[in-house]
Amino acid sequence: MATYKGIKGFNIQTVSSDPPAPFAGEVWFNSGSGTIKYFAVQSASWSTGGNMAAAKSSAGGTGTNTAALSFAGSYTNATEEYNGTSWTGGGNMATARASLGSAGTQTAGLGFGGQLGPPSYALQVITEEYNGSSWTNGGNLTTARKYIGGCGTQTAGLGFGGSGPTNSTEEYNGSSWTNGGTLNVARNYIAGCGTQTAGLATGGFVQFNPYVEAEKVEEYNGTAWTNVTSLTTGRRSASMGGIQTNALFIGGKPATPGNNATNATELYDGSSWTNSATMANTRAYAAGCGTLGTTALAFGGQSPGTPTAATEEFSSGGPATLTVGTD
Question: For the ranges 5-14, 28-37, 108-117, 129-138, which has the lowest average pLDDT?
Fold first, then answer.
């Protein structure tokens, strides 16, 4: 049988602890842990997470990949919490709806706007705040709207675009909404991430007849929006995770014949977009979250046209020490 020594021509080094600065391909035996390890540079990838209790699309989503919050969607009021492995039920929202904006964390979430279910399908101004166990009503949006982008925190939230489409922006201070700077491009089905003073508005839907998907990306500085580098492929009904300088744009529907959902993702470094690893599931109308684009989460949505409960976790890869065996 081939051995490492036979292939490489030398023995595996025995050390009491992992080397502080290993090189790519280096292998060693850690006598302290009794394990054989090697150092490699891994590619970006998506992995399967725990399924949600209920399949749903157009839900709100916020938090991190190990402490996520999913709420409403598919015209329900249900809430679920993710711990990095599995989902459990949380407190129900007061108002069942879909296509709402979201911001905050798992224990301080914010859901706003959206649309009621049949028969009215009425647009909403309602804002609700989550404390980790239950929802309470906050201040209403100035303008009722659905398909609204959102980001920020429960006490410093940002809502933009949506409905018409519109280019209006609103800022939340923990109790009330006020108008902020307008987007340069009016759009709905828009995705967002970041903070109230460093927000990112990405993609969306510009017009009907003909259908035009927006590849436009804008950054918010707390006062005004500025156009920055466009997406590689314009898409609507996508989701996002991350911050203004490290974001992941996930799935959605590109302007292609049939307008089907995609499993494509793009990573933003604050100046340019690059195509990254594809998801196992094609999906649109999904929720996404993550404190960085490099560790984002995607859950729910339609895959391809039916609501799904699937969750996927993103890793940007990079240098890593891996265990390959034990003594």
Answer: 5-14
Domain ranges of the chain: 4-42, 45-315
Q: What string of DSSP letters covers 96-130?
A: -BBS-EEEE-SSSEEEE--B--TTT--B---EEEE
Q: Where are the alpha helices (DSSP H) in the chain?
A: 4-8
Nearest to 128 by CA among 101, 158, 149, 168: 101
104 touches 158 (CB < 8 A): no
Of the candidates 134, 136, 137, which has an alpha carbon nearest to the alpha carbon of residue 91? Answer: 134
Could you tell me which residues are beta bridge partners of residue 82? 68, 87
What does the pLDDT look like over 172-227, one tens digit per residue?
Answer: 999 999 999 999 999 999 999 999 999 999 999 887 656 667 899 999 999 999 99
Please check the confidence at residue 35 and state whether its pLDDT lies above 90: no
Q: Which of 36, 34, 35, 72 has the alpha carbon at shortest distance from 54?
A: 72
Among the CATH numbers 3.40.50.300, 2.60.120.10, 3.40.50.620, 2.120.10.80, which is that of 45-315? 2.120.10.80
Report which of residues 40 and 76 the model is more confident about: 76
Terminal CA-CA length for the chain: 18
Give the number of other CB atoms < 10 A from CB of residue 156.
18
CA–CA gap between residue 185 and residue 204 (Å, rounded)? 10
